[in-house]
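Sorry to interrupt, but I need a hand with the structure work. I would like you to pick a protein and set down its sequence and fold. Please put the record directly below this note.
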Amino acid sequence: MAFYPCEKLKDINVDKNNLYFSSNDGILFDKNQTALIICPQGHQGNYDIPTSVKLIKKGAFFSRLLNSINIPSSVNSIENEAISFCNASVFVDVNNPKYSSKEGVLYNKDQTELLFCPSSKSKFTIPVGVKTIGDGAFGGCGNLTSVTIPNSVTSIGNYAFNSCQGIENVEIPSSVTSIGESAFTFCYKLSSIKIPSSVSYIGDWALNSCTKLTSITVGQIVPLRIEKNVFKNFDKNLCTLYVPYGSRSAYQTADQWKDFINIVEMPFDHDPYLKNPFQNISAKPGAKEQVIDLKTIFADNDLNDIITYSVVSNTNDKIATTKLDGANLVVTFSSTEIGNTEISIAATSNGKQIQSNFKVNLGFPTLNDQLIAVENKVYPNPTSDKFKVRLSNIPNDGILLNVTDLTGRPILNKVINHQEEWIDLKGQTPGVYLVRVNLKGFNIQKVILK
């Protein structure tokens, strides 16, 4: 990259008669200023990219002195490593069709690719939903001591964590399939890294000069074929390579892997499994919360494995909400809503995960609600305005019928004197109502008003 490293260079000025390049405020552009080529490393403060710019070239921003970069809606292409080793927070115009930002971090529009994280960050959790960590995305983040990579990530780009000199441990999730060239090069404090069996490609120089590495754990039973410089410039006599049960001899003869003096087989690891499936839940609005012991649902036959639980999704949290309390899942039901939701729970141990789902049906009549004495009925149900009550054994002086909403608010009180009578709810808000009659064999009935 031209003019790198020129840390004290503040301005680039181009003769106005130059046929190919131009400058503005000390920044180098192409002639028409549609491509931003270089912002000098010594440039300071906040920088607003001109609205004429459509392209930001590779290496454009490598400045430690910039505080912020504002990207207009006109920019439709940002080359790999256009912004790297840079302290600035990035803010993208909300109308930009290709890119977005959040908390100073640069993403593509739908935030499935993380393109740049400012080097000022000390801890960072990559949002769930990100699939790709772009080339050089965390390059030069020397203050970064901790990064959490979610299960949505499938690819770690070239130079992604290059020169993150404060990171000590990295656990790569089982969703990742590729690790790019020089991905962790010059991570001088990195002492351990776990590479799951899902990874099928490790780029050359990926762990170059990680001089503090003492532990590499791999999940591949068959050693990956890798280039000769993946483990360059650190002492493989002092680093233990942990491999799957039964694969030590394969690693002892595989190129690059055989250079490790200490190759240790891990005990056979059982996957977590579904012990008993969830039971679907049917409840009434406002019902008492239910507590589910997840140890009765999931299990792992490795006694030393610790299972952690997470709520993966809840399709309608207006119906029911969930909370994890250790190994207990607490399900709380709405007191006002009716409907359905599907909840997915995951159990994870040793980087392996299993999920199971269950449904919550709130407020609609269940089969048991409908199994009442044959003579005692409420119909039609659902109804648009009125329903008929059919009763048996009516006392001579009649019997009182009550209709309330789900909160208990009285809607109608009526004395029933005949075995069949119409009850009119015309004008009431659509929803679920409760019908009560003090008569043996008549359960509380739910009437759905459409």
